[in-house]
Structures are given as C-alpha cells and as structure tokens.
Design brief:
By secondary structure, this protein is an alpha/beta fold. Helix content is 35%, strand content 14%. The protein has one domain (2-232). The radius of gyration is 18 Å and the shape is globular.
C-alpha cells in the first residue's frame, strides 16, 4: 500500500494533489506543530499584477507556543472568505472554465469551520474528488493512537500502524529524512519528482507553483491530464 503523510494546506498546488493521486492512503499530518509562515493557511494565485497571497487569518494566541495544526482556529472577525472569492473572481473571470467551477468555489467560502484544518482538509478532499482521484482513502494522523517518536521515527511509526508498504515523500523532506530507517522497517521509500507539462495560463509568465485552482479554471475536466510526468506521458504514447 502506497502511503503519503503530508500537512494540510490551503488550496495547495498541483504537486500536493499528485501525491494524493499516487497514494492508496493519504494521511493529513495534523498533530504536529503549526508553522506560522508555511502553507497551512495561505497560498498564491496569478493576477494581472503578478502573484497574490490569499491568507486565512487565524487566532494568534498560542500559535507561537507550539500549538498543533489541528488546534488552530480561524479568525472569522475578518471578512476573508468574501475577499478571497472576490480576488479569485477578479483574477480568473476570463478563464475558460471559471464559471464551471464557481459553484464549488462558492461552497468553499460558505463554510464556517471553527478550525483551520477542518476547512483545508475538507476542501482538499473535494478538489481531489473533482479531479477524479476517487480511489485514494483519507485519514488524519490525529486519529491514530499512541504515535511516538520525532521526525523520521514518528513517520515510520505512523506507517507501521496503517500497514504501509511504500512511502511517497516530497523532495523538500530530504534534508531531515533518514531512508535507512525505512529499509530497516521493511518499508520502501521514494521521493516525488515534479515533472509536469505546461498548460495555458492567464497573466504570463507561466508559473507551475500557484494554487490548483489555476489548473481547474484553465483546463477544466482535462486538469487530470496535467499531472502525468514525462515518463508517464511517454508510456501512454507507447
């Protein structure tokens, strides 16, 4: 069984969803420390003025004191949902498939989740299903009992609990992962390689790292075609 363990993020980029595509089980790593300046509550979109951050405001009390991702609360005193929807509409109203996905987008911003992770996890699952990634199962690391250890050891303990045979990991984790420990645990290990074809975008130059919403609005139901690596595309061509 292929397993991915990844922190929940706000409307992530294409590579995040490629890990979902490749996983039999995708585990949202929600019981580790919240990283205040990471991707948990923000992401970027393309605009005619360049890239723009969309940031969900959160209650800051405790955020710098080791609060876990799952315990971070959304700050609803600010009209951020209305603002984000407006920014997306202004930036993408001329995109060929924007109207097709507007109802889904509106449903996201009608939510009123108390906790950030509830919002980001549920919207990511909906986006994955919309992409057609129907076979991947989802769970949260906080659902598992008695997971001990730090960094690689903790990841391996999670993988053992769920019966993983193969672990898929983003390349940024190479700075702290210890592959030899996976071999000792009988779990094969693989770093993701992000090698995706370009697609038409508004507001050049091309940028592959913005939110997955860009891919939806520009390619519609063909969005899944733009997840295939060069090797996969060559295999399809025979």
């Amino acid at each position: 069984m292929n397993v991915v363990i990844l922190q929940p993020s706000y409307i992530p980029w294409r590579g995040y969803f490629d890990q979902i595509r490749r996983a039999d089980l995708f585990i949202f790593y929600d019981d580790i420390q919240y990283d205040k300046h990471g991707w948990r509550n923000r992401n970027q979109i393309k605009t005619h003025q360049g890239k723009q951050w969309l940031t969900i405001p959160v209650h800051s009390k405790g955020v710098t004191q080791g609060v876990l991702i799952k315990d971070v609360r959304v700050d609803w005193s600010k009209p951020w949902a209305k603002s984000h929807l407006k920014s997306l509409t202004v930036s993408y109203s001329k995109a060929p498939y924007f109207k097709q996905y507007l109802p889904l987008l509106e449903s996201f911003y009608e939510r009123r989740d108390e906790f950030l992770a509830d919002f980001t996890i549920e919207t990511s699952i909906q986006l994955a299903r919309t992409l057609g990634f129907a076979s991947t199962r989802f769970m949260r690391s906080s659902e598992l009992p008695n997971v001990e250890g730090q960094k690689t050891d903790r990841v391996i303990n999670i993988l053992k609990q769920v019966g993983a045979a193969h672990y898929l990991c983003g390349p940024s984790a190479s700075s702290y992962m210890e592959p030899e420990k996976f071999a000792a645990a009988g779990i094969t290990f693989e770093y993701m390689q992000y090698d995706y074809p370009e697609y038409p975008q508004l507001h050049p130059p091309y940028d592959p790292f913005v939110s997955i919403l860009d891919t939806f609005f520009m390619t519609g139901e063909r969005a899944g075609d733009y997840f295939l690596s060069q090797k996969e595309r060559e295999h399809e061509r025979g």
